[in-house]
Amino acid sequence: MGPLPPGSADLVPHRGGQLRQLHGRAAAALSGFDPAAAVAFAWDGPPPGSGAAARTRLMLADSLGCMIAGLGHARVRGFGAALASAMPGAIRLPGIAPGLSRAGAAAVLASAMCWDEANEGLARAHGRPGLAVAPLVIAALAKGAVTLAQARAALALGYEVGARAGEAWRIRPGMHVDGSWHALGAAAAAARLAGGDPDAAARAVRLVACQLPFALYAPIAAGMDGRNTYPAHAVLLGTLAAASAMAGMDAPEDGFAEARALALGLDAPARVAECDRFLIEEAYLKPFAGVRHAHYAAAAALALRDAVGDIAQIRALTLATYGEALRYAANRAPAQAISAQFSLSWAIAAALVQGDLGPAAYTDSALADPLLRRLEAAVTLVEDVALTQAGRRGATLTAHLADGRAIAAEAMRVPGDAELPLEEEAVRAKFLRYAGPVVGDAAARGALAAALDGADAPLLPPAT
């Protein structure tokens, strides 16, 4: 079929070999997501002094802290050293001797950022819109290519694009969200960081929409950490699309709608937030490590820990929580850190034994702890149908004790939720706790001041 005159209806292939007729910008209505509108709305970033601007500022710092913490893991450092041979450059990451290009550094930082599962997220997007955007921003800052104000604007831009794409993209069972729509936000941010205009950013997003990845949950279920390369792929795909867009390349406006239909079987328009407010203000910053769905269970376990006193008296535990948590984080008897990070029962056991849910919950020593193992095995998972039907998150945990008593505790909100945001003091404390062991306390304080306050200090200091 040859090209049609401007303004004519476009006939595009659809499932089953049929043809669907699209008229002009009607493509956006098919998916509920309009990349150009999202880019135009968020291009300049949140208004100074707004709640969204405050959340963007904290998110950049929190994301950097998670990246530095991730670089404390040998597997991440090995990934960086290996990638440097293909993508050499001048950016030095903590613990990695060879220098990396901006794109290579951002890819490694993306894997590092999610390694402890302590980074941001957005409930309405069912994922982490900043996961492939913040690393691009930090790499650009480390290279001296942008100012802190420009970096925050790019972070907010990528976040808003990714957040709305995430609302529209509902993965099938067996898929993993991190290997899907994140590259859309990365593309918008990368175009802005490269000096492009809104039209270039919108083209970059359209280019990604026509090649959205299809990633599996399988590595997590198998206890394999290859899933942590998914956000690195999103970084590189977004960078590629931005470069293509800067060169004038483009793709159809209906690509995202076609991808939803072909990959997910979703023909009906999604309900996506209007471009009249910054969704980043609703983003959560995590007080705990591990998948967000497990945080409600962990918070309930901490409350139960105080009520029970002697956790050795616990004989059985029942967790009632919402359906999405059960679908995404029901791994049992995890043998590896990544499986434990996606395990409701492990979060409960770790919180009960350690009095927290931090990186220490996923170490080899924790995974070998007999008491942790016993308590994890004692958990029964059930669905709280009322929460599921209401579209709410929360958890109720009941402990059955040796003396026959049953004690219950619930957590219907946790720090980081929109109505209970993580305050700056908590973000600062988390940053130092996560980054300090990797680069030293003094260097961690300097990196925090650079990201949060614009201080003249290295964002990515050498590892100790």
Explain what you see.
With 464 residues, this protein is of the alpha+beta class. It has 21 helices and 7 strands. It has helices at residues 26-31, 35-42, 51-70, 74-84, 102-113, 134-143, 148-168, 182-193, 198-209, 218-221, 230-246, 255-264, 295-308, 323-328, 337-341, 344-354, 364-367, 370-377, 385-390, 424-439, 441-453; strands spanning 10-13, 19-22, 88-91, 314-321, 379-383, 395-401, 406-411. A 4-stranded mixed β-sheet has the order 5-4-6-7. Strand 1 and strand 2 (19-22) form a beta hairpin. Helix 3 (51-70) packs antiparallel against helix 21 and helix 20 (424-439) crosses helix 21 (441-453). It is globular. 55% of the residues are buried.
Features:
disordered N terminus; globular; alpha+beta; 21 helices; 4-stranded mixed β-sheet; single chain; 464 residues
